[in-house]
Amino acid sequence: MPKTTFITGANKGLGFETARRLTELGHTVLLGARDADRGRRAAAELGARFVQIDVTDDASVAAAAADVAANEGRIDVLINNAGITGSVVSAEELTGAEAALVLDTNVAGVVRVTTAFLPLLRASDAPAVVNVTSGLGSLALTHDPERVESKVIAPAYAASKAAVTMLTAQYAKAFGDVRFNAVDPGYTATDLNGHTGTQTVTEGTDAIVTLATENPGAGTGRIIDRYGPLTW
Questions:
Q1: Which of 129, 134, 229 is nearest to 185 (CA)?
Q2: Taking the CB of residue 92, how many other CB atoms lie within 10 A of it?
Q3: Are strands 223-225 and 228-229 parallel, antiparallel or unpaired?
Q4: What is the DSSP annotation of 14-25?
Q5: Residue 85 vs residues 139, 208, 211, 230: alpha-carbon distances, Å
Q6: CA-to-CA distance for 208 and 145, rounded, in angstroms?
Q7: Torsion-angle region of residue 196: left (phi > 0), alpha (psi -120 to 50) or beta?
Q8: Exactly one of 3, 138, 160, 161 is catalytic; which is it?
Q9: Share above pLDDT 90 across residues of the chain, in percent, rounded to a whole number
């Protein structure tokens, strides 16, 4: 039986490329997106099924879970990919409201979707959650002068990804019946960075695809990039 995989923020960028690759690998892909027109077009292009979801809206998340429950009845893999960078302002200009918006999308959004989709995951024989984090949330990488992460100042975004990483570790401890792992895609050319990244979207999705397709015994509570396990 093919795996059924739900991906948030999948109408473009890393989410779209992940959906494309997993579809080619035989997954039944449910393409989640906030914008209905873009989501439907992306799903039609890939041969996936579109499910509308706004990860900042409790009712939208609940409706998406109900949609999947009524149609597929389960998911095997949940990929929490949706995220925003927030306003591009200096650290001294960052406001609480702007920080809250980034955290609501990137962190609370993961919580909303994970909680709503847990019953669907538990209907799978080998459920897995993949949370897309970033090296910008890593103390080790942001203090390494050889790494590009050390040269970026993005307080709200970096803090949100540090939170996603810890959230993944906590969920891995809390849920023994569902695997939770996080992935750092690396510096990938997407809309989030104005396509300045040095990796292609295919390279940026390597680790996501690895976690979505690996053996159920591969483990939980891990963080990887396309080269292998990371310490944080």
A1: 134
A2: 5
A3: antiparallel
A4: HHHHHHHHHHHT
A5: 18, 20, 24, 23
A6: 26
A7: alpha
A8: 161
A9: 83
SS3 162: helix
Rounded distance between C-alpha atoms, residue 210 and residue 205, angstroms: 8
For this structure, is 90 an active site residue?
Answer: no
Which of these, 194, 193, 190, lies nearest to 204 by C-alpha position? 190
Residues in the chain: 232
Residues (pLDDT < 70) of the chain are 187-199
Pair of tokens at residue 83: 């995220």
Token pair belonging to 81: 């990919």
* The model's pTM: 0.94
The answer to whether residues 27 and 2 touch, using CB atoms and an 8 Å cutoff, is: yes
Q: How far apart are CA 213 and CA 105, in angstroms?
A: 26
Which among 3, 41, 230, 1 is positioned nearest to 127, based on CA atoms?
3
- Residue 114 corresponds to which tokens in the numbers above? 């994970």
pLDDT of residue 196: 58
Q: Does 151 participate in catalysis according to the annotation?
A: no
Q: Of 124, 134, 138, 160, which residue is the catalytic one?
A: 134
What is the distance between the alpha carbons of residues 172 and 165, in angstroms, rounded to a whole number? Answer: 11
The DSSP letter of residue 126 is S
Q: Which of 184, 73, 199, 193 is nearest to 133 (CA)?
A: 184
Sign of the CA dihedral 136, 140, 143, 145?
negative
Provide the pLDDT for residue 199. Answer: 66
In the DSSP assignment, the letter for residue 205 is T
CA–CA gap between residue 144 and residue 150 (Å, rounded): 6
